Fold 3-oxo-5-alpha-steroid 4-dehydrogenase 2.
Amino acid sequence: SMQCLPGLVLALSSLLGALALLQLSLYLRVPSRYGKHEERLCRARGRLPARCAWFLQELPSFLVPALLLALRSPPRLEPLGCRLLCCLFCWHYFYRTFIYPFFTRGRPFPLQLLFFGMLFCIYNGFLQGYYLIYCAEYPNDWCTDIRFTSGLLLFLLGMGINIHSDLLLRQLRKPGEVTYKIPQGGLFTYVSGANYFGEIVEWFGFAIATWSLPAFAFAFFTLCCIGPRAYHHHRYYLKTFTDYPKSRKALIPFVF
């Protein structure tokens, strides 16, 4: 049966951190070419409907940890803190795989980006699942530790912001519409990337609750990946809409 290899965890976490810096260098100045930042000349290339693409992309992040748990003999059910942390990760990706795609109204998604997205979800799903199921060691009272409780609160807050912001974005469009409008309400009152802010808070909360190198590497990757996208969204809105609220920040309320 599979065993914990600390060297593998360190190597995969370090690579994830390096990928985060690569993402930052690639997309800090130029946005990733999908959605509102897609060039017209690229739109004729291979792509899938948004609902199908999001489902396929996010599915490995749910299936891989579930498969690792199923392969472990005997099944790991203790301690409670470890079980809860694994459930938090799978809970997020259950929503992203089986709920979010069926309500999204985004544009068709490029196959090339879908392929890389799936590869990342397999990679990160394995890293987080492998660490929690085969390597993590937590005391029996981890659920009462300040790191777990504060991280859990941040995770739930971030997930709530993310889901609520997604709902507000969906309500901007009627079925069949592809035009972009100014987001209103919720945290969009203060930032252009409210949905991204929520997801970043969520994964930093998970990292604090998990208190592990793989989780912090993933939180850092999330920041480097969707942080610049929030910045480019902000610039897009300012350039496209003359009545866009000038008081809004790009990502962090009252700061950036």
About this structure: Residues 6-38+45-240 form one domain. Strands lie at 47-48, 109-110. Residues 65 and 164 are 26 Å apart (CA to CA). The chain has one domain: 6-38+45-240.
